[in-house]
Each structure stands twice: as structure tokens, then as C-alpha cells.
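Work package 3, deliverable 3.1, input record:
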Amino acid sequence: MYRYDEFDAKMVRERAEQFRYQVERRIKGELTEDEFKPLRLKNGLYLQLHSYMLRIAVPYGTLAQRQMRQLAFIARKYDRGYGHFTTRTNMQFHWPRLKDVPDILHHLADVEMHCIQTSGNCVRNVTADHFAGAIAGELEDPRPISEIIRQYSSFHPEFNYLPRKFKIAVSATKEDRAAVKWHDIGIEIIKNDAGEIGYRVFVGGGMGRTPYVALEIGHFVSKTDILAYIEAILRVYNEYGRRDNIHKARVKILVHQLGADEFRRQVEVEFAEIKKTGTLQLPPEELKRIEAYFAPPAFEDLPDESPEFDAAVKADKDFANWAKTNLTPHRARGYAIATISLKNIGMTTGDISADQMDGVAQIMDDFGFTEVRVSHEQNLVFPHVRKKDLPAVFARLKALDLATANAGLITDIICCPGLDYCDLANARSIPISMAIQKRFADLERQHDLGEIKIKMSGCINACGHHHAGHIGILGVDKKGVEFYQIQLGGSGAEDASVGEIMGPGFGKDEIVDAIERVVDAYVKLREPGERLLDTYRRVGMTPFKNMVYREQMHAAY
Amino acid sequence: MPLIKDGKFVQDRFIFIPDGQAFPDDGGVMVTFDRFQSECATLIAHHRPLGVRLAASQNPEVLKDDLANIDAIALEFPIFRDGRAFSWARMLRQRFGYKGEIRAVGHFLYDQLAFMMRVGFDAFDVRQDFRIEEFDRAMREMTYVYQPSTDGRKTVMQIRRGE
């Protein structure tokens, strides 16, 4: 993985001191809270319901064990012994004290980490496919270009005061695990007819109260041009994105208002001007240099089959279940990609204790893994596991309470912190998510239901990606009472779509039953091999709606 | 308001004349774009040095044919969070090759000075209590830069490549 050189290292150190000075001035009253707020946000520091919250960048979701251990150390020393992985693959600590934050930044700098631009109206942490470098069918690892974009966008003097936040994601396979079309800029690595690798650039995706799937703006941007192209997009946005209404300030509004053709035209004008200066052309040798950091480990020449693995599947039902859902085929023979679910039944989605972090790091040491990934679905991933090691790795994960066999299943719920932590939220999401997990805890039933992505947000800001859920749940406040709306048909994958609202919302005591009726409707309606999303796309909303609301009416009598 | 130019406090050569007010007999003036447009010839002939002040919503492209006659352009920050002027400054320097003064006016923070210098501002209309040491400090906070801008500083990538 990427290693800082003296320049990167100095940047994060100086950033920590810069922030210390900002905190000092705030404490002395030289900065008003209004002035301090955007400054602290650019450093990932929020003021929430109960305390400050610090968001740490995990660029393209890749962590080394020393970084995981440092997060555990910070969790113990400055927080309450746990942290939370987010849908942008970052880590959040919910209980740090303001005065400690500059010191935490130095602890992060010790392991080449930072909080730069994890919030605020600037380019945020760049995310990428969490199976990068391991999955078959990948044109190339999406992380080198992500790292180049990370550097390019860090402390960008022109684009640190954009109309609104700006998120970039990169994917390199036909299947999209990075939800690129839901980002302000989504980059898909593609190959053109001439066999050259370049980038397809989508712009204007986003959740929030006005959900949009991004439009294709750049059909094929060459490798050397990509930074200039991003700069052109950012400049058009900085100049013409709306600043009069925070709800209309994201680039998605500008793009969808102008339409793809006009937005593209404006970008092309800027792009041509930027290219004239020549300063943003990416030298191929520089890309190669960064790529070298991400070279895959030397894979052993292993047979496809592993007797150890096969024996464990036969002997241990838990392992067999886990293997069925949490393993993904690896491009190298004899290897697998293992997903570590952070969705234990009854636990807060994405939460991980300091002991678990240390435990994961220890597994990495013991099995020779050099990195672990964070997925936007709030799980962890060991990208390169020898199949023969899987039973032992599973046993170790089980001892850490990290062996839940539900990746991609109905209990693998994406969920925001909701009203339990967040001062923007209208409703609680964690307890609802837990109740749904409990309702569907039966593993056999989960397997029968197959892939169902439930995504839940406690408010319209959609941090829990409810617009992209096969089943989306949105918490709303109706005259002081928490209500939950159901959406169906959303997708965050290559077939990205915005979910459709089913009908009137449900109270907190009704929502789990309603979700179960949706699922039962699917079971009645499905044809062999269909996922819930497929069935919904085939039959539409009405049959689902009829079954969900009719039964509710019957129940009322 | 005190003016910092090229890193030092300097005497302001311009007086801002609000629309509708008469010009002084001599000395430099700064006017709005509307005023400049309507009285362009007189201004260029009789009032030097001459400055034009643009609102955050005004693309400086509107001045591109007159840049040779304009000694300073003030770009306004209605509030420090409004970052349009960062792009305008850079466009003036890089695209239109403007060599005159680019002045930041309005509401901006210490914490933005280094970015402003990078994109092409060279003059800052600062708060009454601003200390020059603060300006020096702001310029020293970060040693390296990752991206090219109008200041021509070497980027980390260029240094790595031995350029």
C-alpha cells in the first residue's frame, strides 16, 4: 500500500499544528463559532448532540495493521473504547474532547493518517472498490489513481470553499462496488476500442433530499488528462454551483439542471484552457511510481482446491455458512476474499471495539496479511486469504465476535448513527436496524431470501444511503413522533437506481412488521433465481404495496 | 481598513467611490463594475491608478478587454465561505495574464490567506487589528504544495521528479 515520503509526512504534521492554532484561537475567542465551524469541519471535527465527533480519513478504505492498532489506541485513550466505520470508509470517534484533537492528529500522523477534508465544502476522502487488487475482471487497481486524486485534492487552494461537499469514488470492474454513480464524481476505469485504459467520468450523483444518479460527462478521459478534467469539473462547479440554498448547492443540482450536454460543454471549455497550461498533465512515470506501492503481494502457486477448506465446510456448519456468504472468489488460484461483517445481530452497524481492532491487526500479523479494507457497506475485508488458512482465520474472527455470516444478506444493513448521536437526525436508526436484524436472525431464512440490501437513514440527508437500498428506510419526524418511510428498488451498484417511496410511513412499532411484509411479498412474487430487487423491477410497486398495506388494514380490525 | 500588499502594510493608492458619488480631483479610484462600464472612457483617461471592484458573482471575463487599463481588481468575499473569488483570481492570472494587483476585500479569514496567495491575490484588505506577523505565520504554516497554481510554486510531484 501507499507509504508517505518526507513530503506527505511533513504535510500531515504541519496540518496538525495548523489545527492546534485554530483550536487555540477558538478557545481564546479570536474565532467565532461560525468562523471556526468550516475550519474544524475541514479537519473532520463535528459538534454533535453529546460531544465532538472526529472523522478520520481511510483513503480508498485501505488500512495496514499498524494503522488499525493506532485507531485502537486512540479509541482507548481518547474515546470510549470503540470506533465506527462509515459508508465513506472513514472511521469516526464520537467522544473526543476538543483540546485533545491536535494530539490525536499527531498520533494519526505517526501512522500516516489524517483527518484532512473528511468534512466541509471541499473534496472529501476518495473511495474505491474494497475488492481492489483481488477481484477477477479488474482492468487495473483503482487505488493508485485514487491516491493521486487524494494528493491533488488535499489543500487545493482554489477548491477548499466550494458551494458544498464533493465526493469522488473510483471503480475498475463491470460490477460497481464503490457506488460511483452516487458520487459527485464517479470514475470508472475502462478500456477503449484501441485497447487503451482510461476513465469514464460520471458527474452529479448524490443522495440527500434530491437523489440523483450521476450522468456520464467524460466518455473516455486519458490517464494523463484525468487531473485536468477533474479540475475543469471543479472549476465549473465552484463558479456556478448554487450558493443561495444549501439544499440545492451540490453539483448534482447544477448538472441535472444544465443537462449532461451543456454541463459537458462547459467542462470541455475549462478543460481545454487548463490543458494549455500543461501543468496538470499526469506524467506516466508518476502514475507508475504510485502504482508500484499497490503491487499485489506475491501470490503462492496454490491449487484451486484446499482439503483444509473442504474438510472445515463439512465439519463446521458455522464455517460453511460463513464461507457461503462472506467469501468472494479471488483472481489468484487458491485464494479468497473474506468479508468481515460489522453487522452482528444486536450490535450497532459499523461499530468496532478497540479489542476487535487489535484482534484484526493480530490476525493480519499471524497470517501475513499486509492490509485490511473498509467497505462502503461498513464491513471489513481481508483481500488476500489463502483458502487453506480460512478455517483458522474464521476461528480467530469468531473469537473476536466478528464472524457473522451475513455479508450481502438482509441483516447486512447499512445504517447511519441517527438520532442516538447526530444532531441532524429526525429519527433513531440504530434501534430499528437492530430490531430488523433480530427479526431476520434465522440464518436459513436469510439464505433463502438471498441478496437484499437494506439501507437506512435517520434523516433526509441520507447518510445511510436509503435511496440506494433494495429496501430503503428513511426516518422522519411527524409532529414530534418518529416515522419510517419505506422505499423499494434502489441500487448502489452498476445498475444504479433511485428507490421509489412505497406509501405512507410506519411508526417505530410497525416498521419491522412492514419490512417483513415486504419480504413476504417478495417470497410470494419471486421467480426462481430472482433477488428482491429483480422481482421489484419485474412486477413494480403495486403488488408489493397491496400486500404491505392490505395486511396492515386487516390487522387494524 | 489596513492594506497588506506583497507581505507588508502599505498605503492604499485607491479610494473606493460608491456608485453615484463624484470622483475626487486627483488620486486613484476604485469603482464598481457598473460604474466602470458606464464611465469607462473618462475613468481610463483621467483617473489613475484605476481599480475595479467585482462582486463574487461576477466572472472577471467581463473585464478581459480592458485589463491593460486597470491597475487593480478587487474581488469581493461576501462571506468567507463563498469561494468563487479563488477561481476568479486564478483565471485572471492564468487565463488572461493579468499582472496588476488582485485585492481581496470583504469577509475572509487568516486561515485563507495562504490559499489566496497561491491563486493569485497579492493584496489584502484586512481587519483593523490584524498583525503583520500573522501574515508571515500564515505563509509559513505549510511548507509544501500538492497542486500547481498561479504562484508557480513547485509541487510535491515536481520535487519528487527532480524538476
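Chain A has a mean pLDDT of 95.
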